[in-house]
Design brief:
The chain has 297 residues and is an alpha/beta fold. It is built from 10 helices and 8 strands. The protein is globular, with a radius of gyration of 18 Å.
């Protein structure tokens, strides 16, 4: 069953949350960090699928997204990146306190996966028991430095059209159908028909995003991750965000070299950015379920 509510975050901002509850007592908890230019409601199918196995699932609409900032999509005041990480920690602690004995998994997709990469370096890892990075990559170097510079030199509230051209538009051009989101035309249409999807994020959003990525792969920060925590990298082989698997594998190698003992990688050969909304959708659900149900507290 789906329910929606708002909570007041650390700075007084009201954040919208969707919660999907199973019949009976939950056997585990799954928290979702959604991607850029989308919202929590797009994870209903996954949530309901996990509900059938007894998992409680919830996801907020991040700052500058969805019902949280429906009148200013792509923009909100302040440090969007760090404030969003603070929102996620509040929710994480809330549900961990409610279900202290249950296994707890966090899934981050795309932008949400980069938030999650930072999150597992910043907070007490006893708050969760497993992590899934979907549609992710190792993102560093010149693209991060250049992106932050461009966004910093532009008006904060304006849509970051140049960055969109260099990222989303460039990704789309790699496919004859014109969409990196999915190879299924109906799923691409569904994405762009959604009033809370496909907007251009602001320069302030990107300035904070690229700033947040700085130092994320330093030895000092990687050392803060629980060495034994299971991590699943879950992406489409045809996803340009992950450089067609190369940057996903680079992230995998980074975690392994940092001494993490249980890092796994699953690349779906025919899928693009949204595995669950592509040709491998049903297989993707099974892979996620197998990983999640194997996690123990």
């Amino acid at each position: 069953m789906e329910n929606g509510y708002y909570f007041e975050s650390h700075d007084g901002k009201r954040i919208f949350v969707r919660e999907w509850t199973p019949d009976g007592t939950p056997v585990g908890v799954v928290q979702i960090f959604h991607g850029m230019a989308e919202h929590s409601g797009r994870y209903a199918k996954l949530a309901e699928y996990l509900n059938e196995s007894g998992y409680l699932v919830f996801a907020d609409d991040h700052r500058a997204h969805g019902n949280t900032d429906k009148d200013t999509l792509g923009y909100c005041d302040g440090d969007i990146w760090n404030d969003t990480l603070g929102d996620e920690e509040i929710l994480n602690k809330k549900y961990r306190d409610l279900y202290p004995q249950l296994p707890y998994v966090i899934l981050g997709h795309s932008y949400g996966s980069f938030l999650l990469q930072a999150y597992i370096e910043r907070v007490d890892n006893s708050l969760f028991d497993g992590v899934i990075l979907s549609g992710s990559a190792k993102m560093q170097g010149a693209q991060v430095t250049f992106g932050k510079l461009v966004a910093s030199l532009s008006k904060e509230k304006k849509p970051a059209e140049f960055i969109k051209k260099m990222s989303f538009d460039a990704y789309n051009k790699k496919f004859s159908e014109g969409s990196f989101v999915s190879g299924l035309q109906e799923e691409t249409k569904r994405y762009y028909a959604d009033e809370f999807c496909g907007f251009v994020c602001s320069n302030n959003f990107y300035k904070r995003f690229f700033g947040g990525l700085k130092g994320i792969y330093s030895a000092k920060n990687l050392a803060k991750i629980n060495r034994s925590m299971p991590i699943l990298l879950f992406s489409g082989q045809q996803d340009p965000v992950g450089n067609f698997g190369k940057s996903v594998k680079a992230l995998y190698d980074t975690y392994v070299k940092a001494g993490l003992a249980d890092v796994r990688i699953k690349l779906f050969p025919d899928s693009r950015h949204e595995v669950l909304n592509d040709v491998s959708g049903e297989e993707g659900l099974i892979v996620l379920k197998e990983f999640i149900t194997a996690i123990k507290r």
